[in-house]
Amino acid sequence: MTVQSQTRPVAGAIPQPQQFASDNYSGICPEAWAAMAEANSGYAPAYGEDPWTQRASDAFRQLFETNCEIFFVFNGTAANSLALSALCQSYHSVICAESAHVETDECGAPEFFSNGSKLLVAASPGGKLTPDSIREVALKRQDIHYPKPRVVTITQSTETGQVYSLAEIRAISATCRELGLKLHMDGARFANACAHLGCSPAEMTWQSGVDVLCFGGTKNGMGVGEAVLFFNPVLAEDFDYRCKQAGQLASKMRFLAAPWVGLMETGAWISNARHSNHCAKRLAAQIADVPGVELMFPVEANAVFLRAPEGVLEKLRARGWRFYTFIGGGARFMFAWDASPARVDELASDIKAVAES
Ligand SMILES: *Cc1c(COP(=O)(O)O)cnc(C)c1O
Known about the structure:
CATH architecture of the largest domain: 3-Layer(aba) Sandwich
Bound molecules: pyridoxal-5'-phosphate
Helix content: 40-55%
Shape: globular
Number of strands: 10
């Protein structure tokens, strides 16, 4: 990365064509932006003592139909790492999928913030944990020489764009209860999962046995910010101190809270997710029958993963498309709240063209 070493702005004013390399390439949605603008007037108490933080917290409690504890942090790595560290002692372990963001994309932050709680990777064909895979890891060793399993973490929707059904979550939480484990949900794309299942946030979380949720705001249309929700207030004890120590307590907290008010009070959180999911389906439908190109996973949330010969991917890059291949082993396209359907169609026709050339 050379971004930080650039001394002059490069092409800042030239609009770039929309890219689907990640849903965090997008900007801030109008509802979140408007709430930030509204919050940007006058003075307000700092460190979360302001009316916006109160309003955002209340909006979460209303949306989740429960009196949960809510904390606003800057990013997902912090949300996940601090939530997991709140559930663990240093000698505990956390069971996760091989493909879990906490395992593959957080630079050891969960272990760092928990002072050493070890992540234990469970078999997860298709990117999902199952009661059997959890049981296998949790019961493999029960002696004092091995870190004691304490938490299971699942990603909803998964890193490869699938969604755990309510039945799957409930089966996992039943296994957790049986084994004395807590259940954490990495919801960086929680809204996309809700949009896919058409269920309420309450049904997908505490009513299905989830103890702690990290709800992603960034990929849902905010500029910065994730929320950590504790459905059992006992687990949230001293979490405010944990956030502060980790550098995650915003002094002008109203600007981390206000965009949530915008997303929640207008319903943009779910309409943004519905739109991005539709764009993924729109691409998948157009390329399903292209010879030599294969959908790697069922398209349920806002991601499409393609398997195609390297030559085909090279030609796609040459046409200016950006995408990653280090996740899931194929070309990933990921749609955001403002994905343009016309641009999705351009991508589909370029995929067809390069596959047939
Ligand atoms: C994006 C993402 C996160 C958060 O990542 P940050 O870059 O730390 O904000 C967490 N989990 C998953 C599955 C993600 O895709």
